[in-house]
Amino acid sequence: LVSALVLASSASVAVQAESSQHDGQLVKLAQCPEGYVNNGQKCIRERKVITRDRVEAECPPGMSYRKRYTFKCHPDPKSRNSRAPPQKPHCPENWDVHGKDCHSPCPKGYLAKYGQCILPADTLSTKFMTCLSGSRRVQSFCEGQHIECRVADGIPGTFYFKDGNRCERDASKVNREYTLKPKGGDCADGQVQVAGMYCQDPCPEFYRARKGKCELPRCVIRTDRREEQIMCPEGTFPNPSASS
Fold it and tell me: Is the pTM higher than 0.90?
């Protein structure tokens, strides 16, 4: 059967929250993406509101606000372009015009609502949580002491004992920068096509290509059975423990 190796480290890994008790073990809350907080179950982001800066919008040369109850620029009566149609006033680049005011742009992720920038409240599941190297995520926590399974050579990834009778591969992800595939063209040399519309560098062996990342699929090995072969989504591997 699959043998085990107890990792030497017994210290929990410090992340962004206080320590907690989980299954009798001192652990730390896993880390959420920037802007989110781990509440012990999910990653949550509270609603935020920012007031936008305002400056007065400017009319083009030879034009001004001449009529009441209008927010358009009209040509001066004595100018050569006195019959030109009204125009909207000008604002600095990336600013929005609202009446006679210009509103500053909002930060990335915020929604522009007239005089405000609003970041909506949001919730992410535990799959978006991460732990520092040397620890393993269990639900919404990071454990610094766990039992690593020794499996057959050639099986990618790291396996850990779980629930006493199985070894489960730890989630492994490699980020990839991606670009949109050219219309009617192919990806650049050395790149692969993903989801029919993106181009990125190829993934390591056994990893599955996803938009912007490479992932190892989930694999579980039963430790209470003497199987001659270990079957994972990426292939079948011999189990040396079956003959022992």
Answer: no
